[in-house]
Every structure is written in C-alpha cells, then in structure tokens.
Design a protein that fits this description.
Number of strands: 12
Order of helices and strands: HEEHEHHHEEHEEHHEEEEHE
Strand order of the largest sheet: 3-4-5-2-1-8-11-10
Structural class: alpha+beta
Number of domains: 1
Radius of gyration: 18 Å
Largest sheet: 8 strands, mixed
Helix content: 25-40%
Distance between the termini: 50 Å
Shape: globular
C-alpha cells in the first residue's frame, strides 16, 4: 500500500466517529523519553468495516502491519514541500523523525495507528500536535496528509510541556482570535458532530512516584508512577485548556 494512500485512508477513519485517541509520554530518569499518539478506530471498523473496505478496494482484503517515517513521506512530496513558505517547511521538518505504525485487519475489525518519536527533553514536543495540521498544506490542501485527519491538532491553542524532576506541566494556551474565527466557520460544526462520540486519553509515565495531580479525575498506576486521564474528544477540540494539569512528585 502506498504511503499516501494509507494516510488518506487513515484520514477517512479519523474523521468518522467512535475513535479513541491516546496521548502517551514516557519520561526517563535523565529527562529523555518517548512521545506517541495512538488512534484506535476498531469500533468504527466493527460498525462500518464493509463500507470502509469498499473504499480501500483490493487493499481491504490484506492484513496491514506497516511502519514508516514522515521522512519517507516528505521525500515523496518534496516538490510540493518546496512550494511552501520557509516557515511552513520548518514546521513540517519537526515531524521528520516521527514514525507511523499502522495495523489493520478487516476480519478482526481492527484498525490501530501510532505516531511516535523519541525526545531528548519533553520541551521539544511543544506544539507538535499542532504541527500535524501543517501537513494539510501538502498537495495544496487537496488531499489529507495527516494520519489523524486535517482537523487533529488544530484546536486553536499552543500546547507545551515542562518537566524539571520536581514538577510536570501540560499547558494549552487558547488563541482567542483563532477560536472566534473558527466559531464562524460551518466546517467547525461538522467537525464537532464527527468527533462527538470519540475520546481523548492522556497516559503519562514518570521515573518518580507522584505526590499529587491537579486534575481530580486522574487514575494512578499501582506504583504511582503513571497517570491516566480521560476526556471527551470535544473538550480536546473546543476547550483544550480543560486538559491542562500539573503533576508534583515525591522527594
């Protein structure tokens, strides 16, 4: 399956309902770690696998388990990228080392996709999800390039992470002007409807035991080094600051 066709298919999954998106962060003792976003569209495959299969044609009959980097995609689309502004090219380059893994099994009604990258410091991941929305500029925006759909990451906010060994912070600052502009766009209503039954989950794993979390809905692992918090996907899209929280660690 060609990379761009696979990305286009994943867009079809992502813009329909009943997906679960999970944002994972693993931080090691030295501050390095791994960032990933998982999309589970298996519920949709269960409901509409036959219709989706017809969209994929012969590829739907095959089990898919494939891994590639955005660097490969960018090589295929280098002519299109060269036409972008220097700023847009710089943004896209941030994704160069991200790895995309896709597993699809029509018989088992399974569709899983993971977008991941290692980091030297979690601060490097600032605005990384928003950068995904820059991909729609490829092909002049005529075809989706982001694995999770063009709307993913484009929630009118700037997201940052910080970790100093004593405290971890996830903070999204809303751009009120962009939010107001989006409110006037009828496409926003369509996006809201499509993602209404989807879920956004954060799972963060730390090298130290957690003392407290500012979000009262956080669930702790048995060793108190990991937390899981679940949100409606509409909160992620419309009120991203609701996903802000601080984590303090034991000494």
């Amino acid at each position: 399956m060609k990379l761009y066709k696979l990305l286009s298919f994943s867009f079809l999954i992502a813009t329909l309902t009943s997906c679960t998106f999970t944002e994972n962060i693993y931080i090691n003792d030295n501050g390095t770690g791994k960032f990933s976003v998982d999309m589970d569209g298996s519920a949709l495959m269960e409901m509409a696998g036959d219709q989706i299969g017809s969209q994929m044609g012969a590829d739907a009959k095959k089990d898919v388990d494939t891994t590639f980097t955005f660097k490969q995609v960018f090589e295929e689309k280098k002519d299109s990228i060269a036409k972008l502004s220097a700023e847009a090219q710089k943004e896209i380059k941030k994704l160069e080392n991200f790895v995309v893994n896709t597993k699809m099994n029509a018989e088992k009604k399974q569709f899983l996709m993971t977008l991941s990258s290692d980091f030297k410091n979690v601060n490097e991941m600032q605005d990384i999800l928003q950068t995904l929305s820059t991909l729609q500029k490829l092909e002049g925006g005529a075809a989706p390039a982001s694995p999770f759909g063009n709307g993913f990451g484009n929630n009118n906010s700037k997201l940052s992470y910080s970790y100093d060994g004593k405290k971890f912070t996830r903070k999204a600052v809303i751009d009120t002007q962009k939010k107001a502009e989006k409110a006037k766009d009828s496409a926003g209503d369509m996006s809201k409807m499509m993602f209404a039954s989807s879920t956004y989950v954060v799972k963060y794993h730390f090298p130290k035991k957690i003392k407290k979390v500012s979000n009262p809905n956080a669930l702790f692992s048995d060793d108190r080094k990991s937390i899981t918090i679940q949100y409606p996907f509409t909160d992620y899209m419309e009120n991203p600051d609701k996903l802000n929280f601080d984590v303090e660690f034991e000494k």
